[in-house]
Amino acid sequence: MPPSSNSSTDGYDLVLRLLVGVLAVVVPLSHLAWLSGNIAAYLTGITWAPYQPTNALLHPERLWPQAGETSLLISTRIVPVLLLLALGAAAGILWSRHKNRSGGRKKITDMAKARDIQPLMAKAITNKARSLRPSLKDAKHIDAKDTGILLGNLQGSRHEVRMGFEDVAVAIMAPRSGKTTSLAIPSMLAAPGPVLLTSNKAAGDAFTTAYDARTQVGRVWTMDPQQIAHAAREMWWNPLASAKTLDGAGRLAGHFLAASVDASAQGDFWSKAGSNILSQLLLAAALDERPITDIMQWLAFPADRTPLDILRDHDFAAVAAQLKGTVEGPPETRDGIYETARQYAAALLNTEIAAWVTPQKDVPEFRPAQFVTSTDTLFLLSKDGGGGASALIAACADSVMRAATAQAERAGGRLDPPMLAILDEAANVCKISDLPDLYSHLGSRGIIPITILQSYRQGQKVWGDAGMDAMWSASTVKVIGAGIDDPDFADKLSRLIGDHDVETTSTSHSDSGKSTSVSMRQERILPADAIRALPKGTALCFATGMRAAMLDLRPWYQEPGADELSAASAHASKGITARAIAKHALQQDDYGSAA
């Protein structure tokens, strides 16, 4: 049987590839031979040969007849081969380093290019900063940190991607995916104005890393009621300062409710009734300028008429009537309502926690209205599931943002410099129930919130489906990091990124030879499984009105000055450890003395 034309074609392809491979070696080798031979000739006083690389490799004696055989062997054979090997090794090392710098990540070529996200690029973001911040209007040079918050670099490039000082952001990043090292800490270090950070960690986290650096630009306040950092109590804050109205007292009670009950259960009778009683008692305590801990005594003894008298004396007769109706209602119902309220505020029974929110001698009071016009920093620390303690953290963060809103209105509409509010672990330690609603206007006031969650479902648990959807929609910038294991959310992101045309080549064989056809089909740019497998150090960025972009994150420890920050963080972490050991030893001594 005669050989098929298909076999002949395959043979021709193999010969062609071999020929290309030989040329890839012979061409550079012949040029190296010509160059090396001429250098040797020049050093030995022989005439420079004309440009004939082929002869230099095959017949060097024709170009340099005066040179010895050994000299020609070394200069046109051995040296060129060694040089070619060295160049190949150098190219391999450079390529390996390039892959290591990018973490071996494959660049997604159909994601947004720099031209697609121009509003987040340096020139546009700088021009926008001039229009948003009057203090920068006439400045000849503006530092990058004064123009916006760095999110990372456009993948595979040096183009910095920044969110502006009118954006509001949600970051959904799993643990150890860079949410603190690449987003929270760099944002704090570069913030031009006041900074608020909530967290449930201290050692080796944003608290220890940024603490010393922030002391260089303003005062650092730390509220640590559960002693995560074992910080000395060098401040106190009055949560009743903004509770002298029914709305203010209701907001404060709402923080205790949100810290204790998930969104799905906040609408039942006992939750709402307990929250109402709590708000009425908080209002009475605020009006009479009492410490917040007084409400615990009133909750313990419903028959105490003191809150009723205070409300009536301050012209809150309707509120007093509501409170009186509950107190004089059926005992079973009254006791259930009061017990619910007692559970919400139970953290105030802890004297160490209560000390942070009651007047303290020789300890300065933290005043949100003064903080928002400074360049100070406020660390709000609480453990996961802190109950009433996390309610105080959320209430303090809320009071700061509300004070910032009021100051912005007095200043013409915006804060300058803007205030950065990084709500890390927001679903655990900072459950502000109406945060999704606040997102609709905070950015326009120069208040830049960055809410950091571990998953989309975590937000749904705190704010409900509608609330989390509202926050997602209101966020002008969304950052999605590694570790997205929710298939529905990953598919939603994949659909938002969109499709692209993929060229498909098909080959068929027949007796007459091989034929090739090309067709186009639609395919997801980034399917759900690829989003789930996003490598650490990368993130997706969704900005309003722009295509989704892939970012290379910029962790603080790879930036200039990282050594100093690392040393400061290590020193601060050791301080936390030392304080924890000293406190434990003191407790052991107390137990021993009691025994």
Layout: helices, strands, pairs:
Layout: H1 5-43, H2 53-58, H3 60-63, H4 69-101, H5 122-132, E1 149-154, E2 160-163, E3 169-172, H6 179-190, E4 195-199, H7 206-215, E5 220-223, H8 246-260, H9 269-287, H10 294-300, H11 306-313, H12 317-327, H13 331-344, H14 351-354, H15 368-371, E6 377-381, H16 388-410, E7 419-424, H17 426-429, H18 435-442, E8 447-453, H19 456-474, E9 477-480, H20 487-497, E10 499-510, E11 513-524, H21 528-532, E12 538-543, E13 549-552, H22 562-594
Parallel strand pairs: 3-8, 3-9, 4-6, 4-7, 5-6, 7-8
Antiparallel strand pairs: 1-2, 1-13, 9-12, 10-11, 12-13
Helix pairs in contact: 1-4, 6-7, 7-22, 8-9, 8-16, 9-10, 9-11, 9-13, 11-12, 18-19
Describe the structure in your own words:
The relative contact order is 0.13. The chain is built from 22 helices and 13 strands. Among the domains are: 92 residues, no CATH class; 125 residues, no CATH class. The longest helix has 39 residues. With 595 residues, the protein is α/β, with parallel strands linked by helices. It is elongated, with a radius of gyration of 34 Å. Helix 9 crosses helix 11, helix 9 crosses helix 13 and helix 11 packs antiparallel against helix 12. Helices cover 50% and strands 13% of the residues. Strand 10 and strand 11 form a beta hairpin. The protein has an eleven-stranded mixed β-sheet, with helices on both faces. A two-stranded antiparallel sheet has the order 10-11. It is found in: Cell membrane. It is a multi-pass membrane protein. Keywords: Cell membrane, Membrane, Transmembrane, Transmembrane helix. This is TraM recognition domain-containing protein.
